[in-house]
Amino acid sequence: MHAMLAVAVNAAISAAQIIHRASGDLNQLTVSKKQHNDFVTEVDKASEAAIIETVRAAFPDHAILAEESGCTDGRSDFQWIIDPLDGTTNFIHGFPYYCVSIALAYQGEVTQAVVYDPSANELFTATRGGGAFLNERPIRVGARDCLADGLIGTGFPFRATDDVETYARLFVEMSRACAGLRRPGACALDLANVAAGRLDGFFEQGVNAWDMAAGSLLVTEAGGRVGDYTGGADFLRLGEIVAGSPAVYGQMVPRLAGYSRV
Ligand code: IPD
Ligand code: CA
Ligand code: CA
């Protein structure tokens, strides 16, 4: 395993221990609202602190972009992109679908990725050019080549300012075009599940770099494709993502392009 990936894995495991321990007594959780329907708990913060401590100890010069503490500049071209708990709403409710997501980018390109699901004890890892793995076994995107046969993940709009009406139109189109739509509730884990071939595709708008960075490398290293709704490469910055096996991705982009905010 690449030395930098090993650091990311150690960081994810220590964060996941904090999350898993806290999941045993959800009544003790202190939940605060960032905005309407957007929650954060002390577990998100403790998980992030544990990840940053591990990363900083190994690479004191690297820059960090983390959901709860923001951007810390470093003196190198490496940047860690961290979602300490993706799927916080699920976590708060004891719905066992959430994860830790850690990516390392070099000059803006994601090169290492870890997504760890503590409920299922599933560790997804990828190194650029080295393939994608689930608990150390290689994974590939799904083999279905027709969107009509595909199980597709998505994220619903949930913030007060989100345009639910436009999404509702897209929902109708996509639900007619595929075999089933799912809204599991953790973007990074949804992308990992595309990489593992459990979902044939995924699309969501209004997401941040920390929701997408690690999962996007898992998908491409598993043989899939990722982009913004027009198929463009700048999705991490633009906040919208479509991912899938090459065939399904190719059939999703033309349907999503008209909804792009690019
Ligand atoms: C959220 C989850 C959710 C997605 C949201 C994200 P959080 O992340 O990934 O599935 O729909 O856009 O913000 O807040 O639980 O880390
Ligand atoms: Ca997230
Ligand atoms: Ca989060």
From TrEMBL:
It catalyses: a myo-inositol phosphate + H2O = myo-inositol + phosphate. Its EC number is 3.1.3.25. InterPro entries: IMPase (IPR033942), Inositol_monoP_metal-BS (IPR020583), Inositol_monophosphatase-like (IPR000760), Inositol_monophosphatase_CS (IPR020550), Inositol_monophosphatase_SuhB (IPR022337). Mg(2+) binds at E67, D83, L85, D86, D211. GO terms for molecular function: inositol monophosphate 1-phosphatase activity; metal ion binding. Pfam families: Inositol_P. The keyword Amino-acid biosynthesis does not apply. Gene3D superfamilies: 3.40.190.80, Fructose-1,6-Bisphosphatase, subunit A, domain 1. Its cofactor is Mg(2+). Coiled coil: none annotated. SUPFAM superfamilies: Carbohydrate phosphatase. Keywords: Hydrolase, Magnesium, Metal-binding. It comes from the Bacteria. One of its GO terms (biological process) is phosphatidylinositol phosphate biosynthetic process. Signal peptide: none annotated. It is an enzyme of class 3 (hydrolase). Belongs to the inositol monophosphatase superfamily. This is Inositol-1-monophosphatase. It comes from Pandoraea captiosa.
